[in-house]
Specification:
The complex is a heterodimer. Chain A is α+β, with helices and mostly antiparallel strands. Chain A folds into two domains: 1-122, 2-Layer Sandwich (Beta Polymerase, domain 2), CATH 3.30.460.40; 123-188. Chain A has helices at residues 3-17, 25-32, 51-59, 100-107, 124-138, 141-154, 160-170, 173-184; strands at 21-24, 40-45, 63-72, 77-84, 90-95, 110-114, 117-121. A five-stranded mixed sheet of chain A has the order 1-2-5-4-3. In chain A, α2 (25-32) runs parallel beside α6 (141-154) and α6 crosses α8. Chain A is globular, with a radius of gyration of 17 Å. By secondary structure, chain B is an all-alpha fold. Chain B has three helices and no strands. The longest helix of chain B has 26 residues, at 32-57. Chain B is extended and about 45 Å long. The N and C termini of chain B lie far apart (48 Å). The chains are: A alpha+beta, B mainly alpha. The interface between A and B is large, with 41 and 31 residues.
Chain lengths: 188, 84
């Protein structure tokens, strides 16, 4: 099973069970910035009781779902792991947390279409806010690059007041400003 | 004697910025679906290249052995990304 087929199978499963979701992480920065390879897909889900088992049943043929929830210490969220049977590509389903920005970006998510199926992603502003926040925590170069690329591609279409408000709340404004400054030399 | 054009630091910077601007321009033209599927498609392409590298270093390896080494490398990549 190819990795893009695995992603589409999961989207079908989520839609079939009726689980509200949004695809985050590198998939969302690929949408608004420059595409890069990714071996994981991170999806935020709003789960009702029993839905994870329903999803496991729907996906049983193509994908393996570990029904044991795990805990992510950086984002303090619960998540479930799915992987293709050959084990190379991984899908992580993060349960929507009560973090104010997590809730807000979920409420503001936007719909796109992939091969005829609906898929939801955060807004470009929320991708920037989340990745700048992660950069402030983990200092991962790829988060810096993703934010820089999203800003460069989106250019004048961003709501900077909204971005500034959240970055100020998260204490990550200095990182955002540094990333924007790094774009000045490219004339973007 | 053939003399290649010398690349100054300014020239390299200009070339790098031009390439970046071209990438940005192409990204603006791509559809939602193309961009959404690009991540896993690039991943499968990268796996193909990694398998070729593993076969080159392990000429007698079976497909199962190549697959096992690939998984070890992918797990290493995940750990490196999370440890940074």
């Amino acid at each position: 099973m190819t990795s893009d087929a695995a992603v589409q199978a999961v989207l079908d499963g989520l839609n079939a069970v009726g689980i509200p979701f949004m695809v985050v992480g590198s998939f969302s920065s690929n949408i608004y910035g420059l595409a890069r390879s990714t071996q994981d897909v991170d999806i935020v889900v709003q789960l009702q009781s029993g839905q994870i088992q329903q999803l496991a049943n729907v996906l049983a043929v193509e994908l393996q779902l570990d029904p044991q929830p795990r805990f992510e210490t950086v984002t303090m969220t619960t998540y479930f792991v799915l992987h293709t049977r050959e084990g190379k590509f991984r899908i992580e389903l993060f349960v929507l947390s009560d973090d104010p920005h997590d809730e807000t970006r979920f409420a503001r998510r936007v719909q796109g279409m992939v091969a005829g199926r609906p898929v939801w992603v955060p807004t470009a502003e929320d991708v920037i806010i989340t990745k700048v926040r992660w950069y402030g925590t983990d200092r991962r170069n790829k988060d810096w690059d993703d934010v820089r690329n999203v800003i460069a591609v989106q250019q004048n279409r961003l709501d900077w007041d909204y971005i500034h408000r959240w970055c100020d709340l998260h204490g990550s404004r200095e990182h955002l400003d540094a990333i924007r400054k790094s774009l000045e030399s490219t004339n973007m | 004697m053939h003399k290649s054009a010398s690349l100054t630091n300014d020239g390299i910077r200009e070339l790098s910025q031009a390439i970046y601007r071209d990438k940005i321009s192409r990204a603006r033209r791509a559809s939602f679906e193309e961009k959404f599927l690009a991540g896993p498609q690039l991943f499968d392409y990268a796996c193909g290249i990694m398998c070729a590298g593993i076969r080159m270093q392990n000429p007698g390896a079976t497909d199962e052995e190549v697959d096992r080494i690939l998984k070890v490398r992918l797990e290493l990549q995940r750990r490196l990304e999370k440890a940074r």
